[in-house]
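In this supplementary section we document a worked example of the pipeline. Step one takes a protein sequence of length 327 as its only input; no multiple sequence alignment statistics are reported here. Step two produces a three-dimensional model, which step three serialises into structure tokens for compact storage. The input and output of this example are shown verbatim.
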Amino acid sequence: MPPVIRATGLVKKYGAVTALDGLDLEVEEGTVMGLLGPNGAGKTTTVRVLTTLLRPDAGHAEVAGIDVLRHPRELRRRIGVSGQYAAVDEHLTGFENLDMVGRLYHLGAAASRARARELLEQFDLAHAAERVVKGWSGGMRRRLDLAGALVARPPVIFLDEPTTGLDPRGRVGMWDVIEELVRGGTTLLLTTQYLEEADRLADRIAVIDRGTVIALGTADELKSQVGGEQVEVRLPHGGDLAAAVRATVGLGVGEAAVDERDRRLTLPVEGGTGDLRELLDRLDRAGIPVSEAGVRRPTLDDVFLSLTGHTAEEPHDTEPTDEEGAA
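The serialised model returned by step three reads:
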């Protein structure tokens, strides 16, 4: 099957700022593609181009077999979009918001009302259906916004940082909603700057930096690029770090790194907990006390830092804000 989303050589500039610099991307049917990168990396611009909200300066894009530039109106009937901020009318009730979306999609009065009730139940919002949205919490508004993107049952959905501004509990709740959606076979493109979010939700992850894809693969494939597991031990004040390093000789798959300030020793290994047990035995025989110990596996943050030289939370000015982009 051809990819449901395909972008080739996308370029978008805002004056002297290059937001997209030859971006290539493919998303297979029924999968979740996570676009991972810091603010300003080009994620939102990518979504805007693929959802017909922006025209690229160069490149080609198709979604659901439809050319994004040549047939934008036809494409809009086949996709759902939920942006960084909940696009709901706060002066209407939850039911009225979804009913209005159904009418705009020309579903008809009865079908629009039925679909609104169905989605309010699905997103655990039925109890607030007749309340004006102005009094809803941020998490409830985000769920309503996502429900609005599903009114017409689109086969392809774009979620641009869907958990931005939510507290940890609200974020986890939104993840549950998205996972339920994906189980129904929807193709989903998800942008995020939260590493844990990409790790949990995405089948494949495209790491974006400065307007281009710099790495692509599953979470495990990307993590393998920065090596395997690491054993970490921390010595109490007065512990002999030099002696602890000598105890690692012949163990692991590389030399131990030492953080003298934190009194922490890190050793790359292949044997996980077995190597940790062996190191603790060696330190015990050498009379070296240990205050903390554990096995650390690479994270997507490690991947991003390894690929770009900066963390995923560190912003840089390659993409305008929502207000600038809309200007």
